[in-house]
Amino acid sequence: MAAFSKHLSARNCSITAAVALGIYLLKQRRQDSKLLNRSKRASEVHSNNVLEGKREKAAVDKVFISRIYQILKVLVPQMFCKESGYLLLIAAMLVARTFCDVWMIHNGTMIESAIIGRSTKAFRSYLFNFIAVMPFISLVNNFLKLGLNQLKLSFRVRLTTHLYNHYLRGFTYYKISNLDNRIGNPDQLLTQDVERFCNSVVELYSNISKPLLDIVIYIFKLTTAIGALGPVSMLGYLLLSGLLLTRLRRPIGKMTVIEQKFEGEYRYVNSRLITNSEEIAFYNGSKRERKTIHDTFNKLVEHLNRFICFRFSMGIVDSIIAKYIALVVGYLVVSRPFLDPKSTRHLNSTHSERLEDYYQSGRMLLSLAQALGRIVLAGREMTRLSGFTARITEIQEVLKELNSGRYERTMVSQLGKESDTVDKLVPGSGEIVHADKIIRFEHIPLATPNGDILIRDLSFEVASGTNVLVCGPNGCGKSSLFRVLGELWPLFGGRLTKPERGKLFYVPQRPYMTLGSLRDQVIYPDTHEEQKRRGTSDKVLKEYLDNVQLGHILEREGSWDSVQDWMDILSGGEKQRMAMARLFYHKPQFAILDECTSAVSVDVEDYIYSHCRKVGITLFTVSHRSSLWKHHEYYLHMDGRGSYEFKPITEDTVRFGS
Questions:
Q1: Which of 16, 78, 223, 473 is the most interior residue, by most CB within 10 Å?
Q2: Fold topology of 59-339+358-402
Q3: Residue 497: CB partners within 8 Å, gap ≥ 6?
Q4: How deeply is 487 buried, as exposed, middle or buried, from its count of CB atoms within 10 A (0-12, 13-18, 19+)?
Q5: For residue 644, which phi and psi values (nearest 5 degrees)?
Q6: 251: pLDDT strictly greater than 70
Q7: Average pLDDT score over residue span 145-159
Q8: In CATH, what number does 427-657 get?
């Protein structure tokens, strides 16, 4: 009977250890699945123009430590802040949870010992203790979840606010996509990658601090129970296995970055199909688009297959080194006091006492092994975090440089041209002087950010009240002129005298309709509060709409506060007339009209130009309509071969234009 009891007890120990190990493995599988699912989300913006050679290195090294430190200064800006409180709450709950685990091991051992010893009184006592403590344990676990979720959200708010403060400063949001080619998917970096980074940081904090605390407590408990040799052996194994696995996991960071790039490309080609569906349908281009989508998808699938195979091989190594061998080491350590003939610890103990001692020490050592395994496996999470950190650091550095006036762009078009000319093209070397009621170009080389020279030396002057018609073939530099004038593109030399940005207004051929109410379409980019400060009533706004024959829209909607998808609701001509009403509201010193009346009738067009002259708005107009010559005093003609002429419009010019 005693032998059977001993066999049953040993079997119970093995079953309990196996169950604990199974639960641990299940948790790890769920964590891996969550990480993989999160890594599969990407943005809808193309990132082909980012060169692979310029891709940031993603590895756990000194560079990663420096990067994460800089980002953490943004996430936790001072010692006493909301984030610090959440960090302390999480730490306190982790300590409480570890002590709860230790108590659960001890109490669980007593319950099972009472069951095996057939002691009803002891069983009831320890079971009631467990029932009484359950609410406290549940409270600790849920406070821990609350702290983790709140910390993730707070980190995301801090980092998002920090990045958008730089991204939306001046025209940086324009420059990052049009002047600089280092980042091809800023929307993904600012949204999904920020979220993944913050979640990864918080989870890593939890997944490292809890096992570290477990290790300290279990080492103390085990040292008193089985001596110092056992915990020292486990820690030595941790060091060796950690170094080995960290070395083997290095490719994960780079593969994560490449995965995000391919995901972005795949989502981009799908969004292009939706955006340009009408044009593609007219061209009957479904076969070509199918090929493009399939090629992009297959490229993603091939990389994911390589990633899955690598994760499979690493999973085998992880399981063997970080789990099973750690468990073997644990069994060797815990068995020593019982199997060593020289040990005097259990000379006079009963079978029941030895069973309780072995079971309690075994469970604590199993928990220690699991904690050590989680520390080792945290290296995998840290490697993935290094990939997200590299991407966040990349956009931080690019935004900082763009806000300081520096950008990087591959100079492709100038290869083969005069080298001395290329050397003289220094972005930002020109001088901008702000002055009211005048625009003056003085010896300015008109060039694209890529280095293409459109006009070598552009000089002319326009005083307020003198309308200018800009004409020339496609690609001659008309849009480039206005981008320089609007300070979207840098000056490569010379001096530009112009009013401040707020006194220049640009009306494109396809005007932008903002999200919001009907009122917002007229006063954009002002808000309703700014409209009130300007003293412009809704009655005046109604007059603007009536003047451009859009009064029926207000009557149809019934209110200025009506919210619609105005990009779809308004036709092309209505959008252009809405943009003119917007121009009347702002009354700038100068306005650039870029083919913005192409879908407007001639009578409305005449009113628009007459009203602008009446209220003192000086116009730069890009148009091929002969009816507009009479509304201008000068014309600027660019021939597309590097030459231009700026002359007054005479009757002969008007006749020639007609």
A1: 16
A2: ABC transporter transmembrane region fold (1.20.1560)
A3: 433, 434, 435, 438, 439, 440, 442
A4: middle
A5: -155, 165
A6: yes
A7: 91
A8: 3.40.50.300
